[in-house]
Amino acid sequence: MLNKLKRLPVYLKNVSLLALLWPPATVLRKTNKKYRHLWVVMERGFDARDNAYWFFRYLREKQPQINSCYVIDKNSPDFEKVAKLGPTVSWRSLQHYLMYLSADMLISTHVQPVAPDLMAYYHLRQIGIHPRGKQIFLQHGIIKDEMKWMRYPTMKVDFFASGGKLEYDYLVSEFNYPEGVIQYTGLCRFDNLIRGNNPSNEILVMPTWRGSDYPQGDQFYETAFYKYFQSMLNNPSLLRLLEERDLKLLFYPHIELQKELDKFQSPSERIILANWKDYDVQTLLMRCKLLITDYSSVFFDLGYMEKPVIYYQFDKEEFRKFHYQEGYFSYEEHGFGPVVLSEEALVDAINECAENDFRMKKKYLDRLEAFYPVRDEKNCERTFNILSRMNIQ
């Protein structure tokens, strides 16, 4: 409640802008072809690396008849690659607001789709204030944890993409959306994973964040996250393994923890502390031979490419204290690799994986097939076909 009160001026500003701009947006939709039958695509407003980017790319390359544009900050490191594909709109600009109000389709990896302020519009939607366009939720990653705030009617969208069969069954049975809203299409970014899978000599370490209340600044040095991962980066056995097998290790924390990246150090040139501005996540996933994560859903992407995963979960109780509660997915029963709790067990698991030439074991391949009965390059196409039918209803 306190956070909502702090954001009250943001809510009031956006309600005022909606009221002010609704009439001109209605006129533009009827008189200006740039605003007519418009599909607007966005991620968080400052990036283009996820399902929305790949769907926009599909639209521009395969469905050029669609009047589509992408919303992104012009100072984003991803701006140029989007601008080469087609029309762009500056995030939170006047044109962004006008297109948000006039579009037929609002397509995004985050909620509320394409909104100038995601959290403000998420809460405004709950009280019935929302744009005219269909709200299309492509997802940021496969859901595995309990997320009550995504359940209907707390969250309302017109399309909710699912990336895997187990996830789809869970969403349909538990999230209470009207029939047909949740669709098992696969995630749009998975198309490129199949096409561009080209492993190199890299191990990728990609832990997730710990929630907005996790200690920050100087207090971060006292956290289990910092202590365990800093110790791993200095582990003599791990450093020796990297040398012997001519491997590199990239340490890439979740974007919400990238601000703490400069606190980590390593004595080896084979370990790279990867800044999000310099490295594209999907490229790293396609290049790596092995992923080490803790609880991040990014391992689902690795599974799609049949690459091995190790779950390093040294702080289960603390993680659940600060982050999402456990959902349907059990790492021990459904995971695509072993769960380890100590640094010694982690290094042993890496060695074992290297001895197996970085291939998934059969029991994990069987789990993979159960989660992904469909693995192909048609996720964008399936999504587009469903949205096209929605658009003419």
Short characterization:
The protein contains 17 helices and 15 strands.
Structure in words:
This protein has helices at residues 2-6, 8-31, 51-62, 79-83, 94-102, 118-126, 165-174, 190-196, 224-233, 236-244, 281-287, 299-304, 316-322, 331-334, 343-355, 362-371, 379-391; strands at 38-42, 67-71, 88-89, 105-108, 134-137, 145-146, 159-162, 182-184, 202-205, 248-251, 271-273, 288-293, 309-312, 325-326, 339-340. By secondary structure, the protein is an alpha/beta fold.
Strand percentage:
5-15%
Task: Report helical residue fraction.
Answer: 40-55%
CATH fold title of the largest domain: Rossmann fold
The rounded Rg comes to 22 Å
Reading side by side through the largest sheet, how are the strands ordered? 3-2-1-4-5-7-8
Largest sheet: 7 strands, parallel
Q: Provide the residue-averaged pLDDT.
A: 94
Number of domains: 2
DSSP helical segment count: 17
